[in-house]
Amino acid sequence: MKKIFSVFIIVVVVISLAGCGKKISSEVKKTMSEYESLCDEYCDVVKKATSGNDSVSMGDLTTLTTKLNDVKAKVEKLMAKDLSEEEKSYIMEVSERCINKVQAALESLKGLT
Questions:
Q1: Which H, E and C letters describe the chain, residue by residue?
Q2: Where are the domains positioned within the chain?
Q3: pTM of this structure
């Protein structure tokens, strides 16, 4: 799970380093919405695991990995474009929310060890 978190951080950094433009495109909004949904799903899986829920499986993690690869491809496509300051700011706002959610989920894992 820490590997997935590391990939989230890398995606955030890469997006934030992209170029300049003028407004928040629907593509950026959609990609970041998918990213946040993936973070929420990851947190749900972690919560299930920490609550002793036996329904958490390798299938859950495989599904997350597949979704992560899809979002990664979309991010790479965005990187080829110029991003506006507003887009960068929006990306950072969503990323900070996601990082906070994932950090809280990972904190709950510490209680299990």
A1: CHHHHHHHHHHHHHHHCCCCCCCCCHHHHHHHHHHHHHHHHHHHHHHHHHCCCCCCCHHHHHHHHHHHHHHHHHHHHHHCCCCCHHHHHHHHHHHHHHHHHHHHHHHHHHCCC
A2: 2-6+26-110
A3: 0.67
